[in-house]
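Sequence, please.
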């Protein structure tokens, strides 16, 4: 998992698959060029990390990943030109064939001109927490269902 670069913000599935951010494949000219990777737990060992598809990763910053325990959706921060602020939260849903849907911005109900980070859904699946402008916010996870409808 560890490389000569930076790896951080780990999230695990029920089966032990690890999702995390790394800048090991970054453009040397860019200092904040992180992507999201996954590494499956196989026979008590982590597999070689696989970079997620372009449905998640772009040529911009992607990090602060939260994977749902059942791997049905992923929420992460990205600093994209089409965003509302310094960094927005995006969501993607896993399709039946195992591919991820194109990520969608979680919208102004979550994102602002500030930098939204650190997504987390409670174990009981009732609340979605995140940080913005150096404070902690929470909303009902009903917003995730609304976004899933929009992603289709």
């Amino acid at each position: 998992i560890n490389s000569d670069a930076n790896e951080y913000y780990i999230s695990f599935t029920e089966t032990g698959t690890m999702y995390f951010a790394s800048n090991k494949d970054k453009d040397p000219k860019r200092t904040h060029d992180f992507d999201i990777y996954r590494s499956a737990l196989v026979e008590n060992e982590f597999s070689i990390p696989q970079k997620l598809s372009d449905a998640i990763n772009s040529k911009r910053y992607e990090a602060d990943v939260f994977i749902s325990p059942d791997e049905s959706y992923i929420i992460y921060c990205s600093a994209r030109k089409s965003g509302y602020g310094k960094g927005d939260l995006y969501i993607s849903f896993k399709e039946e064939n195992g591919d991820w849907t194109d990520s969608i911005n979680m919208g102004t109900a979550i994102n602002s001109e500030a930098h939204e980070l650190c997504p987390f859904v409670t174990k009981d699946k009732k609340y979605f927490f995140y940080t913005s402008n150096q404070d902690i916010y929470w909303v009902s996870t009903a917003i995730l269902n609304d976004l899933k409808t929009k992603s289709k």
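The chain has a mean pLDDT of 92.
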